[in-house]
Amino acid sequence: MRYDEAYTVLHYTHNPAQALLFYNLPNNHLLHSFLVWISRNTLGLTPTAVRIPAFAAGILTLAMTYRITRRLVSHRAGLVALSLVAVSKSLGDYVVNARGYTLTLLFSLLLFDLLFLQRRIRAMAILAVCMGAMLTMPSMAVPI
Fold this sequence. Notes:
Mean pLDDT: 89
Helix content: over 70%
Radius of gyration: 16 Å
Strand content: under 5%
Largest sheet: none
Distance between the termini: 32 Å
Number of helices: 8
Order of helices and strands: HHHHHHHH
Number of strands: 0
């Protein structure tokens, strides 16, 4: 495991309150630490279990990339966008590194979908996505 991954596990995932409330360094992505706590307590303290939240968010990011592009352009464009994002080095690094960056990507795409592509604005869904984004990385308050 890399330094930041190990630091997250050692310092922020001992209990849910610590994971969600202890923000003493900007590299603690609060919601991610909470999800790692769940994964770690469910599947054990292994590198695979620790990385599951980032990997799952990466897979959902790919799905949202396809969904948004398909709705904006076409099915083929959605497949091209999905393929390009899937082979990007950045996403590849993010999905195997137990950090909150894939969650930030996912929440950004979810927010875009809710604000610009839904026929009805769902205030509670928007609020939940914004809260999740800011819990993952408080600096997300700026773009929100």
